[in-house]
């Protein structure tokens, strides 16, 4: 529910002739960010399992699994996404309609 408005707002910052390039860059960024997010989640999951197994050596496999999942979800939902969203929010600019008008009114050689 957030991706489409964010992508639209980001692409509105570009001049019209760069919309295709911006869309390609956004799609590539989505793929790379998804892969990085998965890698970070699995790393935190594994570290959480390892730490729980060290602290509680008599724990069952299900308890260790649940502890790893808990650590991964706490990080991803609590801190990771919030901090990334906050940093990205500083780079959102107002729509510059004047620059778009100038670009549309210029004649390009054929």
Automatic annotation (TrEMBL):
Keywords: Membrane, Transmembrane, Transmembrane helix. It comes from the Bacteria. The chain crosses the membrane at residues 71-92. Signal peptide: none annotated. Its main location: membrane. It is a multi-pass membrane protein. Coiled coil: none annotated. It is found in: Membrane. This is Major facilitator superfamily (MFS) profile domain-containing protein. It comes from Virgibacillus kapii.
């Amino acid at each position: 529910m957030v991706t489409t408005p964010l992508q639209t707002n980001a692409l509105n910052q570009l001049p019209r002739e760069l919309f295709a390039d911006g869309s390609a860059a956004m799609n590539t960024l989505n793929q790379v960010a998804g892969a990085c997010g998965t890698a970070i989640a699995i790393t935190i999951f594994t570290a959480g399992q390892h730490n729980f197994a060290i602290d509680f050596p008599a724990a069952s496999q299900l308890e260790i699994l649940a502890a790893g999942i808990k650590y991964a979800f706490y990080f991803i939902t609590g801190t990771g996404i919030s901090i990334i969203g906050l940093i990205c929010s500083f780079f959102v600019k107002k729509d510059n309609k004047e620059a778009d008008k100038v670009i549309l009114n210029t004649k390009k050689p054929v």
